[in-house]
Amino acid sequence: MRAVQYRTIGGEPEVVEVPTPEPGPGQVRLRVTAAGLCHSDSFVMGLPADQYTYGLPLTLGHEGAGVVDALGDGVTGVSVGDAVAVYGPWGCGQCHACARGAENYCTRAAELGIQPPGLGSPGALAEYMLVDDVRHLVPLGDLDPVATVSLTDAGLTPYHAIVSSLGALPPGGTAVVIGAGGLGHVAIQLLRAISGATVIALDISDEKLQLAKELGAHHVLRSDDDAAARIRELTGGVGAAAVFDIVGAQATIDLARSVVAIGGVVQIVGIGGGTLPTGFFSTPMGAAVRAPYWGTRTELMEVLDLARAGAVHVEVERFTLDQAPEAYRRLHAGTIRGRAVVVP
Ligand code: NAD
Ligand code: ZN
Ligand code: ZN
Known about the structure:
- It is an enzyme of class 1 (oxidoreductase).
- Strands 3, 5, 6, 7, 8, 15 and 16 form a seven-stranded mixed beta sheet that branches. Strands 11-10-9-12-13-14 form a six-stranded parallel beta sheet, with helices on both faces.
- It is globular, with a radius of gyration of 20 Å.
- Strand 1 (2-6) and strand 2 (14-17) form a beta hairpin.
- It has helices at 39-45, 96-99, 109-112, 145-148, 156-163, 182-194, 206-214, 227-234, 250-259, 297-308, 324-333; strands at residues 2-6, 14-17, 28-37, 58-59, 63-71, 83-86, 128-131, 137-139, 174-178, 198-203, 219-222, 240-245, 260-268, 288-290, 316-319, 339-342.
- The mean pLDDT is 98.
- Helix 8 (227-234) runs parallel beside helix 9.
- The protein has two domains: 2-151 and 295-342, Medium-chain alcohol dehydrogenases, catalytic domain (Quinone Oxidoreductase, Chain A, domain 1); 156-290, Rossmann fold, CATH 3.40.50.720.
- By secondary structure, it is α/β, with parallel strands linked by helices.
- 49% of the residues are buried.
- It binds nicotinamide-adenine-dinucleotide and zinc ion (ZN) (2 copies).
- The site of one zinc ion has 4 residues, from loops.
């Protein structure tokens, strides 16, 4: 089968021919119907050798959807032909966090060497992929896999961050979304769907700001030196009850810190490497700072239900497997509208 692999540190992803995997006991093989490209892939491929922990060659793709194609020994609960989405943050299935579906916070995954598909285990950017357990499959029903696949990360990750902010974000409060790319453009729709917040979206690209406006942001602002003052103005001086920094660079984190309201929350979703000093004299009274990771299994089901209800969708640019390297270059250059999705 063909697969898109990262093969040498600092190299470009390559389309290569590899053996089609056979499902072992408990595993499910999917014929991949769609795979999304995430900025985290660019981050991983930008790591120097001494910080790279994902193995080589790495078949990329941690947003996956497919049709069940073959079952390993002992697998029950799914049938060949079922259309499914893959829950990516695989955990042990046994610890306290996993037991409540929060495998993204599995306390034993590192110790057991469990890694998500595309981030250590072979990922979805291939004609076929293996999934280690049926509990990592969520039925798609009649949802279109190409339109839906990115909800497994670009939807799930902001959903998880937003749900855990709702206590600080009353109707009428302001939510700031920094970065209106793959995750951000879904975050805006999620906020409109499940909160009564006024949404202010920031980006450095006019095209992304235009998209943010079309998707329901009440205000859009360029992410520059005037942004903090504009947000204060728009909130009558109060600031933002919740800030979702989906870039995470030092400049955006500094902005987040300067606009968060008393009692508000900053969710650092982007992995741009910035830090936010937190303390009595550093952040507003009662403000919380959190760096969430991906989302839970039940939250993925909820995001898919929101899509079924028509409340959220992903703006998709389609690519073939052969075009995946080009799609990664476009993602790196910041010119993808919404999400790049590969259809093998
Ligand atoms: P993306 O490239 O699709 O979108 C990033 C957006 O940020 C682009 O629209 C870009 O124009 C904008 N941007 C860049 N610099 C900016 C700035 N200074 N101010 C405002 N906007 C700016 O990326 P994505 O796939 O949506 O990922 C976003 C971030 O989230 C990445 O850092 C990614 O690694 C991270 N991520 C984290 C998790 C998690 O679990 N915490 C999960 C997925 C992705
Ligand atoms: Zn991702
Ligand atoms: Zn666990």
